[in-house]
């Protein structure tokens, strides 16, 4: 008997593809940003930002996947935007007060990575 390849089996390959492309974009951007920021602690700030951005993107994708249907595009985009914005604000506060990472490197990195992954997301 052939393997079932109906609509229920499609989300897994789509999710894997989205996460793989997102990971490539995040790592590529972090590598480039690591070349840009050379100060003490900057590398840690860039890679911490990359990890946080990847987690936020995974969460945004999971939420969008559960919203269902192609008719909810605006709702999905709005939810993703709000999630990314909230993550950026919370991360800024944590970087400045708790993590004590270099602020410019951390915030430019997370903003750039979230922006790039947002641009790439519709193409995946």
Features:
124 residues, mainly alpha, 4 helices, 0% strand
Structural notes for this entry:
This protein has one domain. By secondary structure, it is mainly α. The protein has helices at residues 11-36, 42-67, 73-99, 103-120. Helices cover 78% and strands 0% of the residues. Helix 1 packs antiparallel against helix 2 (42-67). The chain is built from 4 helices and no strands. The radius of gyration is 16 Å and the shape is globular.
Quick structural overview:
78% of the residues lie in helices and 0% in strands.
Question: How is the topology of this model organized?
Answer:
Elements (H helix, E strand, L loop, with lengths): L10 H26 L5 H26 L5 H27 L3 H18 L4
In total, the number of domains comes to 1
Q: What is the 3D form?
A: globular
Low-confidence stretches: none
| SSE ordering | HHHH
**Distance separating the two termini:** 32 Å
Count the strands?
A: 0
- Helix count equals 4
Helix percent band? over 70%
Mean of pLDDT: 89
Largest sheet report: none
Report the β-strand fraction as a percent range. Answer: under 5%
- Alpha-beta content class: mainly alpha
Radius of gyration: 16 Å
């Amino acid at each position: 008997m052939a393997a079932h390849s109906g609509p229920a089996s499609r989300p897994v390959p789509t999710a894997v593809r989205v996460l793989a492309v997102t990971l490539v974009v995040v790592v590529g951007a972090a590598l480039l940003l690591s070349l840009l920021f050379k100060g003490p602690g900057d590398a840690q700030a860039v890679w911490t930002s990359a990890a946080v951005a990847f987690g936020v993107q995974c969460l945004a994708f999971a939420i969008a996947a559960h919203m269902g249907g192609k008719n909810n595009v605006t709702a999905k985009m709005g939810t993703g935007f709000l999630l990314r914005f909230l993550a950026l604000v919370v991360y800024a506060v944590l970087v400045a007060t708790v993590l004590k990472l270099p602020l410019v490197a951390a915030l430019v990195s997370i903003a750039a990575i979230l922006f790039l992954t947002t641009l790439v997301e519709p193409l995946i």
